[in-house]
Design a protein that fits this description.
Elements: H1 5-13, H2 19-28, E1 34-36, H3 48-64, E2 69-70, H4 72-80, E3 89-95, E4 98-104, E5 112-117, H5 121-134
Antiparallel strand pairs: 1-3, 2-5, 3-4, 4-5
Helix pairs in contact: 1-2, 3-4
Length: about 140
């Protein structure tokens, strides 16, 4: 079941203060936050091993692309210790310039999170143009 921003903020406040948790708290407390559907609907309630495999790849591609992100290491560590078939639920919010994805299980209300700075439309167009020039 998706979590509310308030419930996520409460959970984040119980975690040790790190750059990642501070970024997540700042993100989840911003005004105008909008809950959005998960960008990959086939992952809704997916088993932990599928989510782990997918987000290991996403962590690498995000780092390679130079996109600022917070939370990947702790999320991947948390997923790695779950039973492989444990269903994992996601809640996704879009805020000013960022996307936040928060994971939970039936026993852990906040398993982990990733906050990713989104590209501006201009940056995204520049990236698409680069691919067209160099890949096609």
């Amino acid at each position: 079941m998706p979590m509310t921003a308030e419930a996520i903020a409460q959970q984040l406040q119980t975690l040790p203060s790190t750059d990642d948790t501070e970024a997540a708290l700042s993100f989840i407390k911003q005004p105008g936050l909008v809950q959005v559907p998960h960008p990959f609907p086939d992952h809704a309630g997916a088993p932990a091993h599928v989510v782990l495999r997918t987000y290991r790849l996403r962590a690498k591609s995000t780092a390679k692309a130079g996109m600022p992100a917070f939370g990947f290491p702790s999320l991947l560590n948390a997923l790695a210790v779950l039973p492989p078939m444990e269903p994992v639920t996601t809640t996704v919010f879009e805020g000013t310039g960022c996307l936040g994805i928060f994971w939970s299980t039936q026993t852990d209300p906040l398993l982990g999170f990733v906050i990713v700075k989104q590209r501006s439309p201009e940056e995204e167009q520049e990236r698409i143009d680069w691919f067209r020039r160099n890949i096609t």
